[in-house]
Write a structure and sequence with these properties.
The structure holds two protein chains of two kinds. By secondary structure, chain A is mainly α. Helix content of chain A is 66%, strand content 2%. Chain A has 15 helices and two strands. In chain A, strands 1-2 form a two-stranded antiparallel ribbon. The mean pLDDT of chain A is 90. Chain B folds into three domains: 31 residues, no CATH class; 117 residues, no CATH class; 31 residues. In chain B, helix 6 runs antiparallel to helix 7. The N terminus of chain B is likely disordered. The chains are: A mainly alpha, B mainly alpha. The interface between A and B is large, with 57 and 51 residues.
Chain lengths: 381, 193
Amino acid sequence: MIAFLEEWLKRRLPLEQLDFKRISEKSVPVHRFSWIYYLGGVTLLAFAVQVITGILLLLYYKPTTLEAHESIQYITRTVPGGLLVRNMHVWSSNAMILCMVLHAFTVLLSRAYRSPRELTWVTGMLSLLVVLGLGFSGYLLPWNNLSVYATMVGTQIVSMSTSFLPGEAARLGEWAASLLLGGQTVGQETLTRFFALHIVILPLILLALVTAHLVLIQMHGISVPISILRGQGEKIENWSGKSQKYMPRFLLKESAVWLMFVAAIAALSVVVPYDLFVPYTLLEPYSPLGSAPAGIKPEWYFWFLFYPFEMLPRTVVILCSLSFFASMLAAPWLLSGIPQLWKARFEDSKFPTYAAIAVGAAVALLTVFGQAIVVAVRGGA
Amino acid sequence: MQFHDCLGSRSNGRFVMQLALLVAPFAEATVGQAAHAFPPFERWISQKAGFQTDCAYCHVNPAGPSGHGVGQEGRLDERQKQHLHSADSPILNSFGQHLLKTLSYDKVVSSVSDPGSLAVQMKGYDLDGDGVSDGEEMEHGTLAYDPLSAPPALVWMERLKQNWSFVVTLAVSSLAGAAGLFFLAMERKDAAK
């Protein structure tokens, strides 16, 4: 058993291949789907933009319930370049999540998660979860009606998330929610905790995961879609087609894409500030004595959960959501194991492709339905 | 679970406001000036915009002029109360004051029965200079006194005009930079297998 584990780990963590001096020898396969290799880099760049703009926002943001909203208004309206920096932070966070989701989907479709790259997939999925956590924690910081009421709903969901478990375990969710809230309801303690989560704890976890992800890519090299490998007619383990050097050829091309990305985000930030898309009543400073305005909604990347929560019993939704996230983490093993049930080879089976398309379509459809609910709630107010 | 179960609902207070509108002239005659919010305006804007707006569209306080909060009657001294219906009314925000300055108090009040006519009359003005007229902003439920609150589809061209030098410089320099990097990459001879 130990020998098996040792062999398994040795294959997935070939530390002897981790020689950063050989980074100049790293190559990137060239084929008709080569564009997918830019998605990971753009995600990484968006993370860098987040860090830089986040540090700049920190110079003026005040994480207290009395000053948070005012300080955000000060940054946006008074600080030179404040509108640009704040909106670059918001727009690039959205772009980062979109790129991450697309990156995960292309990895699923191209079966790049296959052995020995399972851990690369797992670190990527964990990074996506952390980024969603960053989005959730950052939503509260402006301390307006939208952010506070959305956080109330979010922490209620966390509180109920383990209610289906037996005995004392059912209270785990409540414990987690009170840990997040720091009290009975959203207040100064919550803001302090979300601030700490958003600027220190989650970014450090993300940095560790991204580093592990990059190290694993360096160890295993860049994967080629299985459909392309099948086309070469030889053994599908090795790519025998054309490749290009990462340094400097691919890096130069990637830099061109990065430049365009930053320019697009900067232009978008100035021409269409993000707050234009939010009704002004939701952007008013939160008052504990006021009532909730209609139209409170999560960010678009949570809409796929928003729709089921509106339509189905909460226990069903929580169980389905937990199963979904667990399945996504275990996707490399599930998608390669399930075809073996009918004695098909993973490489030849169509099942992993259909499963990837089904997951992508389900998430996209639920997101669209979630948007429809947002519009209905807003209109029906 | 309904996502909004935990959230309270905002009462439109229609009955209370109708009663207030009936009683107000008599009260005003006996005790002096009194401030009114006009729910028909709020309802019309909400209906046109597709979401529930509040009194902050014209008033300082989102809850309206009655009460003891910031921008509400209870906080005003006698001198300030004399200006309730004037263009520098302390209970109105800059758009509310702009309305009175542009159209007069009586004209605004007479539009209560047809709030749409107020938007039509304000189509020739643009208080915040964001390129979208006050009337259009009323129809979209965006704040007419705030340049950072406007319908994105209408305002993006105006914002592009306002920031054209930044956007053009950005576009030209990034396109030139990207093209340079791309051609540099294509020139490398190390693209072999």
